[in-house]
Amino acid sequence: MPGMVLFGRRWAIASDDLVFPGFFELVVRVLWWIGILTLYLMHRGKLDCAGGALLSSYLIVLMILLAVVICIVSAIMCVSMRGTICNPGPRKSMSKLLYIRLALFFPEMVWASLGAAWVADGVQCDRTVVNGIIATVVVRTQIWCPVTLRRASPCFISNRTISGTTRSLPRWSATPQGAPSCRSRTTDYDLVGGDQLNCHFGSILHTTGLQYRDFIHVSFHDKVYELPFIVALDHRKESVVVAVRGTMSLQDVLTDLSAESEVLDVECEVQDRLAHKGISQAARYVYRRLINDGILSQAFSIAPEYRLVIVGHSLGGGAAALLATMLRAAYPQVRCYAFSPPRGLWSKALHEYSQSFIVSLVLGKDVIPRLSVTNLEDLKRRILRVVAHCNKPKYKILLHGLWYELFGGNPNFPTELDGGDQEVLTQPLLGEQSLLTRWSPAYSFSSDSPLDSSPKYPPLYPPGRIIHLQEEGASGRFGCCSAAQYSAKWSHEAEFSKILIGPKMLTDHMPDILMRALDSLVSDRAACVSCPAQGVSGVDVA
């Protein structure tokens, strides 16, 4: 991990980062050497021409020079494999090898220039030999610069509200196969921002299977603390559905990052009503639109017997949970389904209060339902500890990840961050002091518990009860293995109190991956959800 020192300065590349670049160059050089050797052996009898002696000498010296480079590159690659991330001691000879390798660029350049000059001088030899030498000069030129540089360095459509006026939705066209197509923007339809070609609206119609008349309100208005949302009628489930979009823009990211806590203004018997400020403000915005603009009143005037269901993914899932809590006084039968919501949403009291009407769904090791300020501090502490004690070289760690991406495997394998195999970890050798001593003494690396939170960032919890979807067995990446199978169970929020490191910690958060897992689970009649825990009121999850 410590950067190498070359030419009197420290570079942003470590001595154990040269395994894969070295392997790439080694393969190219070996193939190049074999090609030149084959050319020389097959055509050396044709070099008794004018200038043939020069060409013969050129090929022999070139093979010798390539052999030296191959040996140096092999040494660089082997040395780079030694030690561990924080133990560069076994790689202390790397700087000398790099100086030698850089020095070899000069004779390579000179010899390539001489070869080009001799060929251009009108050598009267076999054309195959001449073309082969030209190819070696071209290949050498193509390799110089790349090698040197490598070593040195559910979208929602919108019914726009403009100046307080809600515009009507434009019509959309469909292909004969039923897939939506985009239409050109008309001059009489004013838009602010995206969906100029109405692609988003066509996409959501195609994805949901709803009809144009089923939509009550669609908004693409997107600012900090103001999220896009839709209101639609689901006649099959007899529900008025409010769906809130997740993070898709820079404004949404700023809403996510506004992680201070504020008191949630809601009518309920809970005393401790702290919530994530950014998500709370976003939910309040949607609440005002639904109530003050009469959107929900319009929906229930069309279907008064329907029930209210609020859904969202990621940031939208957190906003949906807060929105359901705000609306519960006026709509006691409201239900909320939060897909992959953030963990740092609200207080423990609100978490317990919401379990009767909110259900969260989490897939695998998804990082967002485990994400909070306190968990990030804990993750930083654990990463420092694991990096400092890791006894595996960097290239092995990267190869393990590459193997998983190509051929699959068990996605739930233990890692050092999970606390496995701690007894076999060794102390790093960083000279006078360990990596850990370079950091603030406020960090205690002997404990696995999260850091104490400041009043600005108190511990926050996920919404409602949690259904955890987990992949069973191995799954391949290119169809070489059977399709992934999933199981589901009710889980306690404490199971999501730490950020888990794994190959799928980011992909498990993608909405298409989550929907695929849900479809697989629903299609498998043997899958079931375990019984609710005792003392917790049931939730309708139909």
TrEMBL record:
Keyword Ubl conjugation: no
Cofactor(s) needed for function: Ca(2+)
Transmembrane segment boundaries: 20-43, 55-77, 98-120
Major site of localization recorded for this protein: membrane
Domain Fungal lipase-type: 241-374
EC number(s) recorded for this UniProt protein: 3.1.1.116, 3.1.1.3
EC class name: hydrolase
Reaction(s) catalysed (UniProt annotation): a triacylglycerol + H2O = a diacylglycerol + a fatty acid + H(+); 1,2,3-tri-(5Z,8Z,11Z,14Z-eicosatetraenoyl)-glycerol + H2O = 1,2-di-(5Z,8Z,11Z,14Z-eicosatetraenoyl)-glycerol + (5Z,8Z,11Z,14Z)-eicosatetraenoate + H(+); a 1,2-diacyl-sn-glycerol + H2O = a 2-acylglycerol + a fatty acid + H(+); 1,2,3-(4Z,7Z,10Z,13Z,16Z,19Z-docosahexaenoyl)-glycerol + H2O = 1,2-di-(4Z,7Z,10Z,13Z,16Z,19Z-docosahexaenoyl)-glycerol + (4Z,7Z,10Z,13Z,16Z,19Z)-docosahexaenoate + H(+)
Highest taxon, organism lineage: Eukaryota
PANTHER family cross-referenced by the UniProt entry: DIACYLGLYCEROL LIPASE HOMOLOG-RELATED, DIACYLGLYCEROL LIPASE-BETA
Name this polypeptide is given: Diacylglycerol lipase-beta
Gene that specifies this protein: DAGLB
